[in-house]
Amino acid sequence: MMRKILLAGVAIAIAVARTALAGANDYAFEPVRAEVKKGDGVVVSVRLKHKATGKSVSEAIIVQKRIDMSPDAMDEMVSPLTPVQSNEPSVYSFKTDLSMTGRWLLSIAAKVQGEPETVVGKVTFQAR
Ligand SMILES: [Cu+2]
After folding, report:
1. Whole-number percent of the chain with pLDDT over 90
2. pTM for the complete prediction?
3. How many angstroms is it from 38 CA to the middle of ligand 1?
């Protein structure tokens, strides 16, 4: 009897731990195309995915965004981002000016339905 109660307690503890682990890390932003043309009015697009299921996540609300050349040691080289309409609901697109060839890092934070934590992503784009 005691043993059964103990086992039930362990099972509950594991279930609670699993729930706590599920969170913002279950999601990932991926580039739609990691290579873009250098220039003004370039569109960069990322797709939001639920890692475990591989399903695309739509209707996320982008709460923060920044693109800079930190991968090429130019953190101060920042460009503004303007959201633009994308062809797919799970693709989030932004118009920006990539004035220099090299690597640009898009840092993005989003609110996903049913997920209390803010989902963050870092996606590198190569401007050519
Ligand atoms: Cu630069």
Report:
1. 80
2. 0.82
3. 11
Could you give the CA distance from residue 21 to residue 27 in angstroms, rounded to a whole number? 12
SS3 5: helix
Residue ranges of the chain with pLDDT lower than 70?
Answer: 1-22
In the prediction, which pLDDT does 31 show?
A: 98
Q: What's the token pair of residue 62? A: 């982008």
Rounded distance from Cα 15 to ligand 1 centre (Å): 47
Give CA–CA dist 42/86, Å, rounded. 13
How many angstroms is it from 68 CA to the middle of ligand 1?
8
Q: 105-119 b/e with 16+ CB inside 10 Å = b?
A: bbebbbebeebeeeb
* φ, ψ for residue 124, nearest 5 deg: -95, 130
